[in-house]
Design a protein that fits this description.
The chain is built from 2 helices and 6 strands, in the order αββββαββ. Strand 1 (60-61) and strand 2 (67-73) form a beta hairpin. The protein is an alpha+beta fold and 163 residues long. The N and C termini lie far apart (83 Å). It is globular. A 6-stranded antiparallel β-sheet has the order 1-2-5-6-3-4. 19% of the residues lie in helices and 26% in strands.
Length: 163
C-alpha cells in the first residue's frame, strides 16, 4: 500500500494583466465628473480669493483652500487644542452675500471630522478662546450635499469662537 501525500501552498495573488503599451481605458463619465469637479473647485477658489482681497483686514490662505482671519488668538497659556480633545465651538455660518444660515454651538472632538473640514483642519493650531473668520470653499465646508439650510456647493463665511 502506497501513501501519497500532497501539499497545497497558497498561490501569490496575481496582478491584473494588461497588454504591453496600452493604458487602462478611462470611463468617459468619470473623466467628465473629474473635469467638472476641477472647474467647480477653481471657481470657488477664485471667488474666495477676490473676497479675501477686498477685505480691509489681511486674510491668510490655509492649505485646505480656506482664507482665515484670526481676530483673537485665545489663551496661549493653555496651548493649542489637541487632536481628539473635546471642545465647544460657537459658529455663525453665512453665505458670501451675508445671509445667516446657521448660528450653532457644537461640542465635538478636534481632528475627528466632527466639524466642517475648514474648521477641523485648522483647529489644532488654535487655542481655547480663539476667534476667527473663515472664508471656506464648498469642498472644505458642507460639500456636494450641503445641509438642510446650506445649499450644496455653497462657499460660506464661518465666524468661529473656540470655548
Amino acid at each position: 500500500m502506497a501513501l501519497l501525500m500532497v501539499g497545497c501552498s497558497p498561490q501569490a495573488p496575481q496582478r491584473p494583466s494588461r497588454r504591453m503599451g496600452q493604458a487602462p481605458q478611462a470611463d468617459s463619465a468619470q473623466l467628465a465628473l473629474l473635469a467638472l469637479n476641477q472647474q467647480l473647485t477653481e471657481t470657488a477658489d477664485e471667488a474666495l480669493y477676490r473676497l479675501a482681497q477686498a477685505q480691509d483686514e489681511p486674510y491668510a490662505l490655509y492649505e485646505n483652500g480656506t482664507w482665515v482671519l484670526l481676530r483673537d488668538t485665545g489663551d496661549a497659556a493653555q496651548g493649542p487644542i489637541r487632536e481628539g480633545e473635546e471642545c465647544t465651538v460657537h459658529m455663525r455660518i453665512y453665505s458670501l452675500e451675508g445671509r445667516l444660515y446657521s448660528d450653532i454651538e457644537q461640542t465635538a472632538h478636534a481632528g475627528k471630522y466632527e466639524f466642517p473640514a475648514a474648521v477641523d483642519a485648522n483647529i489644532g493650531e488654535w487655542n481655547h478662546g480663539t476667534k476667527a473668520k473663515l472664508l471656506a470653499p464648498w469642498y472644505a465646508a458642507y460639500g456636494i450635499k450641503g445641509t438642510d439650510v446650506i445649499p450644496p456647493y455653497e462657499n460660506v463665511i464661518i465666524e468661529i469662537e473656540l470655548k
